[in-house]
Amino acid sequence: MRAKALADDLDKSYREDTIVQFNYLPTVRGRLALNKGDASAAIANLGVAEPYELGGTRAIDFKWSSMFPVFVRGEAYLAARRGSEAARELQKILDHRGLVLNQPIGAFAHLGLGRAYVLQGDIPKAKAAYQDFLTLWKDGDPDIPVLRQAKAEYTKLK
Questions:
Q1: DSSP letter at 64?
Q2: Hey, what domains does the chain have and what are their CATH numbers?
Q3: Per residue in 134-156, pLDDT tens?
Q4: Residue 41: CA atoms inside 13 Å, Cβ hemisphere, count?
Q5: 3-class SS letters over 112-158
Q6: For 119, which of 13, 48, 90, 91 is 20 to 30 Å away at the CA?
Q7: CA distances (Å), origin 114, targets 26, 36, 44
Q8: For residue 1, what are the contacts with CB-CB under 8 A and spacing of at least 6?
Q9: Minimal CA–CA distance to 53: which of 96, 11, 107?
Q10: Whole-number mean pLDDT of the chain?
Q11: What is the pTM of this model?
């Protein structure tokens, strides 16, 4: 509940701030809804970010990407088992790597895309997306849960 309280405070303090209102807050609220298992609410919260997701400003800290709402929306579609919509969102991240820079969502988009293709039943594309993710993380700590999970999911595809 602390995150919700902080988001509400941010909303009150920065009512006129476009980045806060149409990027940060929708992302936080979308993630909070996903954490509660409500993919529909997450998708609805993230809708307001769509017109702004490919934009940028000098005010954006390089630690934050305008593509975070896209990533969380992709996760929400995955949670809702809507593979084609998830694939569309996650592909946006791969198509706009210059906006993502070196943020982890660039790599995680490959993993999410693999999962989206599995939902669609497109196993060859799913395998390719998983391979892309695993290649990017080939030197990663093998004990990281997301890497172990990705390897297990990929093994099931063979």
A1: S
A2: 2-157 (1.25.40.10)
A3: 999 999 899 999 999 999 999 99
A4: 11
A5: HHHHHHHHHCCHHHHHHHHHHHHHHCCCCCCCCHHHHHHHHHHHHHC
A6: 48
A7: 25, 24, 24
A8: none
A9: 96
A10: 92
A11: 0.91
